[in-house]
Structures are given as structure tokens and as C-alpha cells.
Write the C-alpha cells for this entry.
Amino acid sequence: MAAAVRSPTHDVVIVGGGHNALVAAAYLGRAGRTVAVLERLDHVGGAAVSERPWPGVDARLSRYSYLVSLLPRQIIDDLGLSIQLSRRRYSSYTPLPDDPTRGILVDTRDAAATAASFLRATGDDAEADRFDAFYRRLEPVARRVFPTVVEPLRRREDVRRLVGDDELWADLFESPLGVVLRRSLRSDIARGIALTDGLIGTFAGADDADLRQNRCFFYHVIGGGTGDWDVPVGGMGSVSGELERAARAAGADIRTRAEVVAVSPAGDVSLADGSTVSGRLVLSGVGPLVLDRLLAAGGAASGAPIATEHPEGAQVKVNMLLRRLPFLRDDSVSPEAAFAGTFHINETMSQLEAAHARAQGGGIPHPLPAEIYCHSLTDPSILGPELQASGAQTLTLFGLHVPHRIVEGADRDAARAELLAAAQHSLDSVLAEPIADIVYRAPDGTPCIEARTTADLEESLGMTGGDIFHGSLSWPWAEDDEPLDTPAERWGVATPHPSVLICGSGARRGGAVSGIGGHNAAMAAIELLAL
């Protein structure tokens, strides 16, 4: 008896409805391809969503991801997205941990004020110039390399020639980040400000030989060709909302409450309700380890796994609504300036290294290195009129060096409470008043504060280990001897299965709210479908 001829229902089926999946769906639909997006939750957007965490409180927060830097203008223009990004005037404020009456305020519009701030905090009249020179040295890398992330992968040697500076190449891509920071900057506090860019969602030491910290740092300083991090007006949900609109306008079939339980290498996607959706290609917006499990359930023969490691996130996020901004111990800086950018707490280089060592031993760092952001100063629209009139402000805290191993297997509520206490203690150490005294209270009297651990991300978003990057970030190139024979290989979205591509943060050049993985998977799919 002849085998039945397989008849796909769509050109492409996308597993997961995160922002990258929506980008891919929009591009594919605009290219005339039929696309189905299957999302387990009752809404799309993944981690790029806005929510009202507290009943009866008109505050719409970017609950998980919160800033935008790596979303290329090309994607915004190609898809006709109406996304407004607001640039923050103040880059950062960092109080001295042992004397919070002094701190460094980096004002992008006032170099003299920034220099005076460095001098007051460090006693070194040249450290501000060193700090500025360090970041100016990175500008050519951002300007030249960022445009390549939406192109087929270049070879390592090609990117090296593009950078055009062998010493800079060695510092960024071949030597641990700690080495160049110690050589470029003299103060512990300035080194720490720079090092934090290598540690967002990444558990690494400054001198780790695998250069995880370098890869994270690289992506934090190239966004948009400038390295600027912007606030999405209307919250992160405005970004995913526009992507959903664009995907639907392009004809994408977006299905929520559609839980995928298996994926076959041939392109058949099985759902929890017993139905099957088939595609000529499958694009995966879920993490590589999750995809491995789905493929195994779909009958994939054992072989080289897609995931090369077990992902592990390394952060705790605390969302707060305050009655007003906190008072500072440093009377030379206004709270409106200090909280408008990135407020670094207990993040000198030595503190970051000590925190990493403690966390490696299984303990919560004390003090917890953290940084906070007040998005409502830049974008008041995320608060309702009454909250705006009252002077209320949001505050988002992102704690570093909290690897998933600390909370894995622990009582969920107890672990969350312990991390929240550590975060509050760290924050209180640099403020002139306890943060708990000014937390806004909901109509039922409960304080408007919540903590989201890596375990919470794993449970609510399906991110294995709470890893916001779905695994270690990759360099934005192919090795010189790496095969680039297929469209999927050339675009950095290949798996061992020709009909299955990666379109999420686990793709090469994936990570953060960028849409890059979705764009590149769509480009590879368009090429493959034309063959």
C-alpha cells in the first residue's frame, strides 16, 4: 500500500507567540506565506508584555522585559510598526556603597556636571575622561557590527576586519572583560558601572575564561549602533501589541491557548487538545531545550541535541509602585535625575565579584547587586491620571548574581520572600528612608510590590531555568570553518532537522527584545520555501 501523501495546512507553523514569533509571522505573511502562530498562554508577546499586577491600581508595568536597544530600525520600518522609544537623558547614577552621600551621575547632556560628579565620588580628576574614552572606543564596533545582525552570518575573520582595530578586537572578543576594565578605569566604582553591562541575566565573573560576560557586554553596547537603551512609550506591551497587529494584518493565523505537546521533524505540530497543525516548515520561538523535548515527543530519532547546555537565568526582578520618589542621602543629586536612568546599587567591581563568589557557593549575595529604573519619569502614560496627579512613580529593580540554582527546588513563596528582602535591604542601604515606607497600597491595603524569580519565569513563561536568553548568548558571526551551506545555517537559525528552524532568543544573535531571531528565521524560511 502506498504511503499517504503529507498535506501541510500551512507554509509555516510557529511554536510560541513571543515577540520574535510575531516578527517572523509578519515578515512571512507579507511575503505571501500562510502562517500559524501557536501560543500556550491566553495572550501573545511572551516576556515583552505590559500588565496591571495589582487589582484596582491603574498602573500598567512592563512586567518582565523593560527596555529596548537591540530592535533594529529596519524591522520597525519593514513592518510599518508604530513604536515610540524615548531616550533617557541620564545614563546612570551610582552612589558609593560606603558613603551614599556621594555618587556618580552620568548626564549625557552635561559633560562638565558628569566630570564634577566623578571627581566628587572618586577624588580623581581624570576618571571621567577615562570612562568617556572607554565607551567612545566602543563606538566603531557598535556602528559597524550592529547593521550585520539582520544580514546572513559573516565569518569571524570578516567581522574582525570590519571592526578594523586588532587591539580592540582582542580586548572585547578574546580576553576576559575584567582585564580591559582594570586597564581602562582606575576606580572600583567606575569599573563596576561598566561591568554590569556584562552581567544582565548572565551569571559570570569578570575574568571567566569562557567570555560569557564579554558576549553579554557586547550586545549591551551595540544596540541601534549607539548602545543606547530606551523606554518604550506605553510599556513593553505597546511593542508586542504593534507586532501582533502587523502579523495579523499580514494574514497570520494567531492562536492563543494552543499548547504544543510535540513537534515532528517533518513539520507536524501536535496540540494538547489532540489536534495537529502541519507546516512545510516549523519555526520555534521556545528555548532550544524545550524544542528538544517537543521533538523527542514528536518521534525525532536520538542524535545531536539542539540545546548545548542547560539554561540558567541569574536574576530577580522586583516591580514596585511608590507614592513618590525616595529621598537620597546625596543632596547634590535630585531624585528625578538619579532615578531617571539606571540607578546602580552595590555594584562596584569588587562587590560584583564577591556577590558572584557567594552565589557560586549557593548563597544569596549580601548586599545584593541591583539596578533600578523609574520608567514613569520617562513615560508617565503607564500610570492612570489619578496616579500621575498624586506624584506616584513606578520602580523596577533588577537584581544580579541570583542563579537559578539558588531557588531551584526551594519553596516558591519562601524563596521569593527571601530574595525580595535581600533586594529591599540592598536598596535601603543607599536611600535616606526605607523603601517600604513609601510603597503605594492597593485599595485592599496590600503593598504594590512583587518579586519575579527565575522559577517564576520558568513556570509562567516556559523559560527553562528562568534564562531570559534561552541559553548563553552567541557571538554575531560564524566561525571561519563553520558550514554555511543552507539558508538556515547562513541566517544562524539551523537545527539538525532541515524543516525546523529557531526563531526565538535561542537563535544565533538572539536575546533581548530585538526581533532579530524572528527576522532572520523568516528570511531563511522565505529562501527555503522558494526552493
Q: What stands out?
A: The mean pLDDT is 96. DSSP finds 19 helices and 18 strands in the chain. The radius of gyration is 23 Å. The longest strand covers residues 99-107.
